[in-house]
Amino acid sequence: MTFSLLARDPSTGAFGMALSSSSPAVAARCLHLRTNVGGAASQNITDPRVGEQLLDLMALGNSAAEAVALLTKTDPTIAYRQITAVDANGGSATFSGDHVLGINHRRSQTDVAAAGNMLATPQVVDAMIETFLVTTGDFEVRLLSGLKAGLDAGGELGPLQSAGLKVTGPHGWAITDLRVDSQESPIAELVRLWDVWSPQRWDYQTRGIDPSAAPSYGVPGDE
Fold it and tell me: Structural domains in the chain?
């Protein structure tokens, strides 16, 4: 009930993901990123522990493919899961169990992986990756463009309700972490949130690292 795009930015080493679903609060369950380690999506009938287990395996030095292979050998519920992973070297891997719902597709290549289930068409996944690869600009913009291309290619069969966008930052926390947990047009709302957030995102990194240099936004008490 989800389609997602997971990638590594080779110019910065950041990891990012954009995703959407007919279920509420998809980013709270399916989106997993860790600075300097990798990214993972756990979707379909979701177990949020799966994403963290994949990140733990990659943190131990396993590639994305090795981490996915290890998990699929040891998880007795793996037939119900659809997962993607990208590691710190740009390696990627995907998996879809036998009980993944509806029309489903997955694809991976260097620095990027995408997957979806209950899709209108398998081309949703291909459209996400191909659009991401040819889009320029901010990493977040490339991810959002890929997500919108998946929607334009048919998206999910059910009406979408939630979406999320997250990108790791250089200091151990996310530079961007935006969620739409329940909205009639969640991807459009996610784009609106990005337009609000993007001019300020590096200022909030500065607030954490060097508060004396943090800019003021003129709100009461912050002038």
Answer: 2-213 (3.60.20.10)
Locate 188 and state its tokens. 């459009």
Q: Are 55 and 38 in contact (CB under 8 A)?
A: yes
Please tell me the predicted confidence (pLDDT) of residue 223: 57
- 41-98: pLDDT as tens digits: 999 999 999 999 999 999 999 999 999 999 999 999 999 999 999 999 999 999 999 9
For 54, 64, 67, 93, 136, the CA distances from 75, given in Å and listed in that order, are 12, 16, 12, 17, 38
| Alpha carbons within 13 A on the beta-carbon side of 30 | 36
Per-residue model confidence as pLDDT tens digits over 150-176: 999 999 998 999 999 999 999 899 999
* Cα–Cα distance for residue pair 116/71, rounded to 1 Å: 19
76, 63 contact by CB (below 8 A): no
Q: Sign of torsion, CA 108 126 122 7?
A: positive
- Those residues with Cβ within 8 angstroms of residue 195's Cβ, 6 or more apart along the chain or in another chain: none
